[in-house]
Amino acid sequence: MYINRQSLNTSLPLVYHPNYSFSFDPNHRFVMSKFANLYQQVRAMGLIGDNVYQPELGSPEPLETVHCDTYLWDLWRNQLDAKSMRRIGLPWSEQLMARTFTAPLGTLKTAELALQTGVACHLAGGTHHAHYDFGSGYCMVNDLVFTSTTLIAQGKVNNVLIFDLDVHQGDGTAAMLKHNPYVFTCSIHCEKNFPFRKHNSDLDIGLANNLKDADYLHIVEDTLTGLLEDVNPDLVLYDAGVDIWEHDGLGKLDISWRGLEQRDALVLKTCQQAGIPVATVIGGGYDKDHLRLAQRHAIVVEQAALL
Q: What is the structure's pLDDT at 7?
């Protein structure tokens, strides 16, 4: 898709911290370099300037509002047992802890900016497999739960819609917000994919393997339009996972690159037309071609800048 760079909104609020990427095994399935590469990709679009906001360095304390204290501090101090770390799937390091506890503050800042401007993008986030007292699937703390509940507790919003379009179900988000009437959780995901034990979101739509663009986009549009009308949220937290792409290493859908662009444009424009602020996080994406992965994650930023 050809984009006229002059048509991009260079004041689009972006949130990023340099500690999101650090020296990491380049052959690991989780591409830790994608955050720095995404930043460079967005810079190449001409979207990096005084519109970039940096969250404070994180620590366990802020996350105690949504996670088990013992779990958080055991994680922080490298005192989790080997089984728990295997479930997370990442090797412990001080750098990993720094980025893990900073990123949720980045999602919160992104949401605050979206409430002010209508749309804002976090160049990280979407750790939806993290549960109350354990991590899973490369996710250790849940930024979506932390952000939505923090904003509600602070009185900045009355209700939030978490619209999760990662290819994997947002099980941690669903479990942690099960009894919260002020946050509506929706996950549209590939049904026969990780996690194999699902937790009930307020609305789950499990997709068949190899679903293609037209049917997928129809489902997304119908679902979001209905939810914005029924839930009438003060804010949408949009998990724009790019692992729905047809060649993703862990996805099982057949969504084209153009389909990704259309999806993100659809979600963002639908929220904009409804007058509802939307904050985006990048969610999952897996690719041995690290630069191509960053380009995929940059799609949602580009589409937001085109609004």
A: 85
Q: Is the Cβ–Cβ distance between 126 and 103 less than 8 Å?
A: no
Does 257 have pLDDT greater than 70? yes
Dist CA 107 CA 84 (whole Å): 25
Q: What is the CA radius of gyration of the chain?
A: 18
Inform me whether the pLDDT recorded for 217 exceeds 50.
yes
Q: What mean pLDDT value characterizes the chain?
A: 97
Neighbours of 10 (CB within 10 A): 14
Per residue in 284-307, pLDDT (tens digit) is: 999 999 999 999 999 999 999 999
Side-chain half-sphere exposure of 20, counting CA atoms within 13 A:
26
Q: Are 144 and 150 in contact (CB under 8 A)?
A: no
| pLDDT per residue as tens digits for the range 1-31 | 445 566 899 999 999 999 999 999 999 999 9
For 240, counting Cβ atoms within 10 Å of its Cβ (0-12 exposed, 13-18 middle, 19+ buried), the class is buried
Secondary structure of the chain as H, E, C letters: CCCCHHHCCCCCCEECCHHHCCCCCCCCCCCCCHHHHHHHHHHHCCCCCCCEECCCCCCHHHHCCCCCHHHHHHHHCCCCCHHHHHHHCCCCCHHHHHHHHHHHHHHHHHHHHHHHHCEEEECCCCCCCCCCCCCECCECCCHHHHHHHHHHHCCCCCCEEEEECCCCCCHHHHHHCCCCCCEEEEEEEECCCCCCCCCCCCEEEEECCCCEHHHHHHHHHHHHHHHHHHHCCCEEEEECCCCCECCCCCCCCEECHHHHHHHHHHHHHHHHHCCCCEEEECCCCCCCCHHHHHHHHHHHHHHHHCC
Pull the structure tokens for residue 54. 């940096």
How does 88-100 read in b/e, with b if 16+ C-beta sit within 10 Å? Answer: bbbebeeebbbbb
At residue 121, does pLDDT exceed 50?
A: yes
